[in-house]
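Let's do one together. I've listed all components of the complex below, 451 residues spread over three lines.
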Amino acid sequence: MEQAEAGAAGSSPVHDQVVPAGSSSSRVIVHLDLDCFYAQVEMISNPELKGKPLGVQQKYLVVTCNYEARKLGVKKLMNVRDAKEKCPQLVLVNGEDLTRYREMSYKVTELLEEFSPIVERLGLDENFVDLTEMVEKRLEQLQSDEPSALTVSGHVYDNQPINLHDILHIRLLIGSQIAAEMREAMYNQLGLTGCAGVASNKLLAKLVSGIFKPNQQTLLLPESSQDLIHSLNHIKEMPGIGYKTTKRLEALGISSVHDLQTFSSKILEKELGISVAQRIQKLSFGEDNSPVTPSGPPQSFSEEDSFKCSSEVEAKNKIEELLASLLNRVCQDGRKPHTIRLIIRRYSSEKHYNRESRQCPIPSHIIQKLGIGNYDVMTPMVDVLMKLFRNMVNVKMPFHLTLLSVCFCNLKALNTAKKGTIDYYLTPSLSTTSRSGKHSFKMKDTHMEDF
DNA sequence: TGGGGTTAT
DNA sequence: ATAACCC
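Okay, and this is what the predicted structure of the assembly comes out as:
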């Protein structure tokens, strides 16, 4: 789409470096961000919705909407009544069940993992990929007499010119080409559109991905990084500085990125602790050395529902409903959770974030039955959860809850028996026959945990 | 604000 | 177990 032609054929710019070669620890990171993800999934499920203003509803909120709806004034997290008032033609679909979104989300991550295994998920609709190694490989392969080989893909932030003699520019340019290939693959294989940002770290990649908005990509060159971070109007827009930290910074008179850059490090460390202080002050300069951490399979599964609950019977019914869904999910995953947690939210007029939880190990005899028929496990699990419930809520007194959530965590890969341990030789699937598929286990009555 | 997730303390 | 962060 845009600029940058290859240099003169004679002296390859790739090997004519301004910056020393491999010594540079500079990275190439891409941030990919699907456009209004839930709405896209809904339009794929039901193509008749395409072209119409569409909102995805959870309870009384429009949590996201397509661009048709945005043009008509609907915003994310808008009240349904306000949205309908702004846009009476708005079509609403219920998005409280995340199953299809979650499935599509993992298809995206898996597609990206084919490019490079270093993929970090952020929510259901964003991914970071560390492209550094891929870019190095393409640079080695590059016999640069073909002019299209060094053309940037997509936008360049601030329209900054690319210097083909600067190896950092070249590497990022290659990154932009890979990002374009990723977006093409997402569209061709999954029918999804999204934005991408390419930069030298996660913070900058994430900030720059949102510059050109639906279905476009932007490359940030190092010389423009200060302009990018100073384009933020307030420190609350900095990823990594959340609600609480923003309030504490404002109390110190810090509201702009420049304020944070120039504020006394010593005082900041005393106010926020050395860890947070040093991290966010680096962020204010656009510095972020946090690695792209491969997410792998999820660390936890949870199901929640916000609703009014003031009796033990209501709680039990909801817990059974949440648990049934969770058991299906955990069954599909193949791993087994070893811990279960119950989370509640109590009704209280003030108090911003109030949630309480109790957790306990899942009894081993229940864990064993988890793989196959989840029928026997329902009743004992509900019993465990109701004990946790009564531990938090005095059911002899009136109570008023507004949310219940059940979480499975501490997931282990079937069994963690290691070679040389007694478990190893007592576990049929390990010491003797194949350990091929996740459907092949049937160690029905082996109570390994009893050792 | 929903219905999820993560890591650090 | 909670608190902070992210979507």
